[in-house]
Specification:
Strands 1-2-3-5-4 form a five-stranded antiparallel beta sheet. It has a single domain (2-148), classed as HIT-like (HIT family, subunit A, 2-Layer Sandwich). Helices cover 36% and strands 17% of the residues. It has helices spanning 2-5, 14-17, 24-27, 66-87, 121-128, 138-148; strands at 29-32, 36-40, 50-54, 91-95, 112-117. By secondary structure, the chain is an alpha+beta fold. It starts with a helix and ends with a helix. It binds zinc ion. Residues 11, 13, 15-16, 57, 109 line the site of zinc ion (ZN). Zinc ion binds at residues 11, 13, 15-16, 57, 109.
Length: 149
């Protein structure tokens, strides 16, 4: 899997390695901020599932300095604004899994998930089980979100 294989050589961390990729499309980065960046989840729960991460390799929010914490919140807010205009969802799940026990797939570098939700989408998900049927491919999602940013 390319996503895993491309982990940073020093830290072995995908969130350190992604922003070093010069191609925004290859890395699926939609916005590079001063202290953090916004990237599409390569394995989305719904179309428009994005993640916000700091450049700093820290496992948890309280280890980030205040400026970085503030920029995270601002990137999350703008992500919601953009996703609202592009996908017209009925709601959002926004959050971070901190620590493996909390379900973090990648626990060493804190990141926030922003998942657009629609009324009825949980019924759809439970009937299809593990199969995630997405209405559009990642390149299309990337273009739409980047254009709206
Ligand atoms: Zn990292």
């Amino acid at each position: 899997m390319k996503y895993i294989k491309d982990a940073d050589k020093q830290t072995g961390c995908i969130f350190c390695s992604l922003p070093r990729d010069s191609s925004d499309l290859a890395s699926l980065i939609v916005e590079r901020g001063k202290l953090g960046f916004v990237v599409l989840n390569r394995f989305p729960y719904t179309s428009g599932h994005i993640m916000v991460a700091p450049y700093a390799h820290q496992a948890t929010i309280e280890l980030l300095d205040e400026k970085t914490q503030a920029e995270m919140m601002s990137l999350i807010s703008h992500s919601i604004r953009v996703l609202r205009s592009v996908y017209r969802p009925d709601g959002f799940n926004v959050g971070a899994n901190i620590g493996c026990a909390a379900g973090a797939g990648f626990a060493e570098h804190v990141h926030f998930h922003i998942v657009p939700r629609w009324v009825g989408d949980t019924n759809f998900m439970s009937t299809t089980g593990d199969v995630r049927v997405l209405p559009e491919d990642l390149e299309t999602t990337w273009k739409r979100i980047k254009e709206a940013w």
